[in-house]
Amino acid sequence: MLRLVRYLRDYVKECVLAPLFKLLEAAFGLAVPLIVAQVIDEGVRAGDTGLITRSVILMVVLTVVGLVCAITAQYFAAKLSAGFGTRLRDDLFAHIMSLAQADIDELGGPTLITRVTNDTLQVQNGVFMFFRLILRSPFVVFGSMAMAFVIDGTQGLIFLVAIVALFAIVFLVMRVAIRRYAGVQAALDRIVRRTQENLDGVRSIRAFRREGAEQAAFGEENDALYGLQVAVGKVSALMNPLTYMGINLCLIAVIATGAVQVGVGTLQQGEVVALINYVSQVLVELIKLADLIVLLSRSSASAERLNEVFDTSRSMADGTQDASGADGSVAFRDVSFCYPLSSTPSLSHVSFEAAPGETVGVIGGTGSGKTTLARLLVRTYDASEGEVILGGRDIRDYSLATLRDACSVVEQDVRMFSGTIESNLRMGAGPDAPAGELERAAALAQASDVLASKPEGLEAAVEEGGRNLSGGQRQRLSIARALARKPRLLVLDDASSALDFATEARLRHVLSHDLSGTTLVVISQRVSAIRHADRIVVLDDGAQVGYGTHDELLDSCPVYRQICLSQLPEEEVSGHGED
Question: Do 2-311 and 323-416+478-578 fold alike per CATH?
Fold first, then answer.
């Protein structure tokens, strides 16, 4: 938790004023029982109405001033905790965005979502309550004990013993609770992961009629979280009963000894009333302190989880070379790759090359490593072995910012962002690109009809995930977004799977003839999408089993020939063999 104190540096004034005003409020509260004792012992007993009136007015003034101090402290505590939470979330999100994809895979997407949202909120709430109560509650508790010693030494000793015992209870409960709260947050991670997987795969779940099984699995995860929360709740619930028990024993001791002292004349009745008031104040503050300790225990567990993310350093080193001057030539030189949590390579010894302006097709069955190849091209991951070359230089030599500016990738799983069509296209073109360039990119991507169908044109709204657009519209707009960047390397990873054959043919013609100097890597399961490429890479279970033109592969690669037989007329494939 202490490691996150750096986010309070801009709020030094608030960090001082919030507890200071709370201390002032507490000081005024500690003065009231003494005034009450004076009213009873001197005003009521002597019938001095003037003293009683003055004392009542003084108590009202102290109450009003205390209220103003409390409101002021609340304002400063809220301001610093909100600023703390804002800066913490900003830094955490920026750090996560700076991590490599392998780092994010290792940490896990669901747990990162939980940490950015729930854990930061827990820490923010802990900071808020800390500056409100961490000084006030001990000040009132020990101040009450000091006042008890002022009134009578014996009564002060009773307060001292009770407070030491109660603090020991609070400390023991805190030690047990803080470990269990970490388990609660981990269980919440699993709930978020299960929810995310079900929402992402809802169509598959319905297609295979797995709703009941998934509901049962979610129920098990939820029950596990429930059990952990109940367990930690039972531990935390011990705090108040034990605190009440200790305070009531203290109150019994005060009344019993006080009655004897009043009888012998060493203590006055008003002083006993003041002691009882101080016991009540200690009770209230210890309950608040107990709740604060529980909240800080949860905040501490969340802070540890946040520090785990901050301690995760980027595993992918950034290069120093500028990729803006590189041409679009691409080469794979004996590239192999294995995902971080996998023992089986996804790609093995893949080699190919393409000159600027050429088109390379990549084809293979499901799970053959096509998407992995696309990710290596734009350095989402680094190759385990071999080299990926762009513009004659290993892409690891380039800075990631300039490399990503020089490349564009369109995946099959299109990601559109809420906003407008224009805001989505500007993600590729940049904020200053003229509207004409966006419209030209849309025309190249065969998406002009999408703009024409919307009365607002580029200003047409796009809902979250592009759910108000069809699959084909999303794919074409995604291609337009990539083209708006004017990349030297364009990677289409099954990016036309939702398009009809006529639209795909027009798109293929435009990409082949209107993008001079742009190297095109087309990854597809459709033979029609890659058959006219300058060279074709055939993958099978991660291994490169063929490389050449369409005609060459029909003669030399059984895997490619089998794919063609499954998609093209048999006469066309067989006729080629006879030629």
Answer: no
Looking at CATH, the fold of the domain delimited by 323-416+478-578 is given as Rossmann fold (3.40.50)
What amino acid is encoded at 418 in this protein?
A: S
- Rounded Cα–Cα distance for residues 38 and 48 (Å): 11
Burial of 197 (0-12, 13-18, 19+ CB in 10 A): middle
The correct answer on CATH 3.40.50.10190 for the domain covering 2-311 is: no
Q: What is the pLDDT along the chain (579 residues), one digit of tens a residue?
A: 677 888 888 888 988 898 888 888 888 888 888 888 888 877 777 777 888 888 888 888 988 998 899 899 989 999 999 999 999 999 999 999 888 888 888 888 878 888 898 889 989 998 988 888 777 778 888 888 888 888 888 888 888 888 888 878 877 777 777 677 778 878 887 888 888 888 878 888 888 888 888 899 899 989 988 888 888 888 777 777 887 788 788 888 888 888 888 777 777 888 888 888 888 888 777 777 777 777 887 788 788 889 989 998 888 888 888 888 888 889 999 999 998 777 788 899 999 999 988 899 999 888 888 889 988 988 888 898 999 999 889 999 999 888 888 888 888 778 888 889 889 888 888 788 888 888 898 898 888 888 888 888 888 898 888 888 888 888 889 999 988 888 889 999 888 877 888 888 888 888 887 777 789 999 988 888 888 889 999 999 889 999 999 888 988 889 998 988 888 887 776 655 443
Name, in order, each residue with C-beta under 8 angstroms of 197's C-beta and a sequence gap of 6 or more.
none
* CB-based contact 349:373 (threshold 8 Å): no
- Containing 43, the helix (H) or strand (E) segment is none
pTM: 0.73
Asked whether the beta carbons of 250 and 195 are under 8 A apart, the reply is no
Domain ranges of the chain: 2-311, 323-416+478-578
Q: Which residue has the tokens 């104040």?
A: 281
- 460 φψ region: left (φ > 0), alpha (ψ -120 to 50), beta (else): beta
Amino acid identity of residue 69, one-letter, is C
